[in-house]
Every structure is written in structure tokens, then in C-alpha cells.
Amino acid sequence: MMWGNNAYPCEQCFSAENQYQDKVTLTIKGLTVEYVKILVVLTSIDFCCNNFQGEIPETLGDLKSLIHLNFSHNALTGRIPKALGMLTQFESLDFSVNHLSGRIPDELVSLTFLAFLNLSFNQLSGRITSGNQLQTFSEFL
């Protein structure tokens, strides 16, 4: 769609240098693709039910505009990244039905906008840190 002479109505509002991360390599169904210039103003990522394997990358903490993240129903292993605590706009986080282990990071306490948290059906251990938004949940899933 064209808006006058510009492809986007707010084209001049964004500085391309600040809105992109260098690159990421993604393998889906055996096909590996390297994406260059990844937009960091993503607000929602839903990768549920994809049989993803491996660990959740700490670099998710670089996506400062992320509000919703769903990696449920995969085969993810390892720990929940501490860097997720840096996503101060986070409202929804779902890592349910994976093979995650270890403690729930204390850094999640800083997610003051978090309204939905589902970490069920993993092998997480230890106490859940209380404080800020985590105290408002009536039950932990």
C-alpha cells in the first residue's frame, strides 16, 4: 500500500539504524535461514506448537518492545533466561509444556506489567520469588 509518495505513513519517524539487530539464524523444519537486519520493535512473538528444541536464547532480552511471548508446546530445554527481566513492557509470557529446568529467575519480579504467566508442565524447581507483579497472581500455572 502506498501513502502519497512514501510506502509507509511514518517512514520518517523511524531510524533504521536503531530499529534492527544484526542477524539471527532460524531453523524450521530442517531448513536453516539467516535473517539479517531483524526488527527489534516486535511486540508479539507466538512460536507455540512448533517442536522447537534447544535453549531459549538470552538475546530475547534485546527485544525491548516485546509485550507478548509464547513458546508453549515445544521441546525447549535449559533455563528461563534472566534477560527476560529486562523486558519492562512484558504483559504475557507462556513457556508451558516444554522441558525447561532450573529455577524461575528472580529477574522476572521486575516485570511490573506482567498480566499472564504460564510456566506449567516443565521441570522447574525452587521457590517462586515474590514481589511486585508476581504477588498479584492468585495462582501460579
From TrEMBL:
Keyword Zinc-finger on entry: no
Membership in a protein family: Belongs to the RLP family.
Keywords associated with the record: Cell membrane, Glycoprotein, Leucine-rich repeat, Membrane, Receptor, Repeat, Transmembrane, Transmembrane helix
Naturally occurring in which organism (per UniProt): Solanum pennellii (Tomato)
Pfam families: LRR_8
Localization per record: Cell membrane
Membrane spanning residue stretches: none
Chief location category: membrane
Highest rank taxon of the organism: Eukaryota
Record has DNA damage as a keyword: no
Name the UniProt record assigns to this protein: Receptor like protein 25
Membrane-topology annotation of the record: Single-pass type I membrane protein
InterPro entries xref list: Leu-rich_rpt, LRR_dom_sf
